[in-house]
């Protein structure tokens, strides 16, 4: 079943060409991390996915990534959104290349799906065919492995994850216990690319069934 896509918006982007050493110390940067790139976005999970893509297309590392409480609709300001991501690299050019990868992912590579016309009931069933350094580190897997990145509201997330794990030869790497900072839940699952896609499909179809019949058990 095709569900409408819900894309995220990048709200603010900045590059620090030569980061202050005091700030570098507090951020625990390595010696080659001389430049920073940062952005805010309206969806944290799309932001994390985009950060991982940045590590694959530029010589950068993710040095800070954090969700904000209560989600984008209750942010601290018009440019805050739902999370902030910071990448670091040896030169401003590498950082800009990383931010370009972030922008490309947000524009066309990652999206939530809507279960209702109002687009208020959402799920994220995204397959990363080949992980970069960020998500592989988070999941505890080797770089280049496949991941199913699955997110939904609390009950739907748990119910959908059980179905996803039973539907394919995948392993749960990281459980995002609900409620998260943004009141969702989910997990990272790993396996072959085809297994991750099967798990994501099962997750989606199970949650569609819950949305259609929320009180039938």
UniProtKB/TrEMBL annotation:
Family annotation (SMART domains): BMC
Ranges of residues in domain BMC circularly permuted: 1-111, 112-217
Places the protein is found: Bacterial microcompartment
Keyword annotations: Bacterial microcompartment
Chief location category: other
SUPFAM superfamilies given in the database record: CcmK-like (SSF143414)
Top-level lineage group: Bacteria
Protein name listed in UniProt: Ethanolamine utilization polyhedral-body-like protein EutL
Originating organism: Bacillus badius
């Amino acid at each position: 079943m095709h569900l409408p896509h819900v894309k995220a918006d990048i709200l603010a982007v900045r590059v620090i060409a030569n980061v202050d050493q005091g700030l570098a110390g507090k951020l625990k940067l390595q010696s080659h991390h001389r430049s920073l790139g940062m952005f805010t976005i309206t969806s944290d999970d799309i932001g994390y996915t985009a950060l991982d893509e940045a590590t694959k297309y530029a010589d950068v590392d993710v040095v800070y990534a954090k969700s904000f409480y209560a989600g984008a609709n209750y942010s601290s300001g018009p440019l805050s959104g739902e999370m902030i991501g910071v990448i670091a690299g040896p030169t401003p050019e590498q950082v800009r290349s990383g931010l370009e990868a972030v922008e490309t992912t947000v524009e066309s590579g990652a999206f939530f799906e809507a279960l209702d016309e109002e687009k208020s009931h959402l799920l994220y069933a995204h397959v990363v065919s080949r992980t970069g350094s960020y998500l592989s580190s988070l999941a505890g897997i080797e770089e280049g492995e496949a991941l199913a990145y699955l997110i939904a509201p609390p009950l739907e997330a748990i119910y959908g994850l059980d179905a996803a794990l039973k539907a394919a030869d995948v392993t749960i790497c990281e459980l995002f216990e609900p409620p998260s900072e943004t009141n969702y839940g989910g997990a990272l699952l790993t396996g072959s690319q085809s297994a991750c896609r099967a798990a994501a499909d099962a997750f989606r179809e199970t949650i569609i069934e819950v949305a259609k019949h929320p009180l039938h058990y």
